[in-house]
Design brief:
The structure holds two protein chains of two kinds. Chain A is an alpha/beta fold. Helices cover about 30% and strands about 25% of the residues of chain A. Chain A contains three helices and six strands; from the N terminus they run βββαββαβα. In chain A, strands 1-2-4-6 form a four-stranded mixed sheet, with no helix packed on it. In chain A, strands 3-5 form a two-stranded parallel sheet. Chain B contains 28 helices and 22 strands. In chain B, the strands form five sheets. In chain B, strands 14-18-19-17-16-15 form a six-stranded mixed sheet. Chain B has a five-stranded mixed sheet with strand order 6-8-9-11-10. In chain B, about 30% of the residues are buried. Classes of the chains: A alpha/beta, B alpha+beta. The interface between A and B is medium-sized, with 31 and 38 residues.
Amino acid sequence: MPLELNETTATLSDVVTVDEVEPLVAWLRATPKGKVNLRRCNHLHTGALQALLLFQPKISSAPANAFLAEQVLPLLAGSGGATSRPESEPP
Amino acid sequence: MNPLLAQFLAEAADLLTQVDEGLLQLERDPGDPELVNEVFRAAHTFKGSSGLFDFPELTRLTHAAEDLLDAVRGGRLNLDSGMTDDLLAAFDLIRGWLAHVTQHERLPASAGADAAVLITKLRGPLGGDATTPVAEKAPVVHVIAPPPEWLRHFDTEWLDETATWLTTTASTLRFARYAPDEGCFFRAEDPVHLISQVPALAKMAVVPPDEWPTPEGYDEYTCLIGFVLAARAAHGELDYLFRYVPDQVEVVELDGDAVRRFLNGEVAEPAPASAGEPEPAAAEAQDPALVHDAYALLTAAQSSLRTEGVGGARLASIAHSVSAAAAALGEITELADLNAEELTETVNRLLGSTPPPPPPPAPIERPVPEERIDRGRADDPGGQVGTKILKVDQEKVDHLMELVGELNVAKNGLTFLADSAEEEFGSRVLGRRIKDQYSGLHRIAEELQASVMDIRMLPLSVAFSRFPRLVRDLSRRLGKNIELVMEGEDTMADKDVIEALGDPLVHLVRNSLDHGIELPDERTAAGKPAQARITLSAVADGDAVVVEIADDGRGINPMKVKRKAYEKGLISEEELEAMGDAEAVELVFRAGFSTADQVSDLSGRGVGMDAVRASVEKLGGTVTMKSEFGTGSVTRLRLPLSMAVTQVMVVSVAGQRFGIPVDLVVETVRVPGGEIGRVLHQDVVVLRGEVVPVIDLARALQMPWTPDETADRRILIVSLQGQRVGLLVEQFHREVDVILKPMEGLLAYADEFSGTALLGDGLVLLVLNMKEVLGLAARAQ
């Protein structure tokens, strides 16, 4: 199961496909202060990345996957990403 | 612009629409062979036409599209939506190119690279014959492009480091922008996955949407973000990875210098968003105009501070303007509480730290690398292909013409109203004012009519265009060597005339080819050059257009024509004896006449020339023929420029008014009743030594009228087929321009009238068909 959702934390593991995007977005909507654990995530679908960019949840745990850690994690706010996105204020 | 190119662009716009519609329909109904054929034909036409110009990429791309469509048409391939996408993309790209061509008369610089990608895709389903385009595009892509503005999405610090590193190592990086379309998730595309596969990815950044939606309105299945990435992967690797989405990816190769140039603010289009980003470059890249203004402001403040006695409100206002100038120069200073001395010091400091700016006009225009523009335009779908040409249904123009006619009629009614205002109601002032109104209306109506007529005008080249081919084909078949010369193709005439001219012209040219022109041997024997010449020419002559078909063939033998006509019973023995050569030539227009010794499949069925005369006369024109035996013949068609408005002369008989086309009218005469003679039951009048038969129009039309014995007879002389005929009428009226409506319905049988027209006073004018009227008169006697 690539997606484990509980009250405060969403755990994304292995390959997050487009099928997981909808429940993830629903959870992010319902959980404004949720945290996302990406430790065992190996791939993040663009839709999921886009959702994380929009809702900007706190990333509680950095991914182990090299590509995600090096390239994707810096993009996600709250993890010290340098790219500024003035338009993407959290709601 | 080259007229050929202009025409190509105008046609291309139509073809593109056709292709788009066809492809979209095909997607819905993939099995329809007619649709495939239609799209194929459009692509084929495109390819053919593009070959005329120096657009090799266009030709190559359409060729690839055509090959794919050909395979589909031949049933070797089933069109799937991927192929449709590729085809649509190809034609979209072409649309972008043509918009560029419309403006610059050449393809955008990026055309080769863009085409290569699509060609590879289009050829894919056919078994990939992609080697040539790939080899060709190689030099095009590997240029170090000027820095694109989307570099701003990268971390500035990283860019700075990278620029230094690239400069130090004299190497390059491939930068790409990937803008997935909104619906890409539905096509199982995952941009992040694609990017994660890029070998030796150096950096990736997200291009956020212009505006993030609210969480409530967020559609998780719409892809809003794009990406920029930098990679050490080779071009080929990037091309391969992004082979399914080439139109969404832009790859440039940049060296350290280029990145540095970007950091220094040199981009093709200055990005408005960059001001808000914490880039050190942004602060330096100030608007030169602003700097200039600030500098001027500071200089002014300096000089006013030098004058003594500055204080109070004056000082505060200077302080205010100085702080505004300082802000423009990037320094935030709080000056409101300073006294004059401190303020002067600040101004001096600011002026000292700011170099005097160059004069403003120069720095505003930043040199924009040309290729950059090209690239931008290439994929701009909103461009205009070709000049704006409206295609309007002919019926609409005809309707407009009718309305103009009715406007004329309504307008003419005003003069009658003016008269009755004067006569019936005794108000001369009102009558004059109505007439003033009338003249204004008249001018507008005239102009309106002229412009509607102008819309209907076409050059004669439309009618001539088929002849080069016709002459070439026929001369081959007949073994004759013929040169076709066309003159005055740009003479304009009404489209009805042009269209109606087509068939008679074909008859005449065929006749010349078949009967007029001799075989080469025969020509050489007669001392003529072996190559014959047919000249088609058109000239405008007043309100008529004269079209001539001339050949230098054998001409018409008047003796042979006369004998033939006699044998066929077309002329009597007396006529045979008395007929002059010129008249004999005219015999070829008689029905049932054909001089060719044997009937060929080209012409010579004996319907040719009389059919020509009939159709030209129907247009209100005339045909004449001159021929010199042995040296050639000339057929001259004289046609009205426009058939929409006819000028008629109004006459009245037995109180009823009739119209007679002015073209036919020679003169109007009044002769005393006694001068009308009678020869063989026919009234005649002698005019300048010529005996002219006179027809009583009232009797011919069976209207009861007896001319007043004492008064002069009014006779209208008309010329019909070279013969003069007098018409006895009651009264002459003026000439009027009318819009002739054909006789329809219950009146259709009345051949003696060629149509009806409405006059300004509301009366219906019957326009006479003189030929039929003469026939009626002959029968009445």
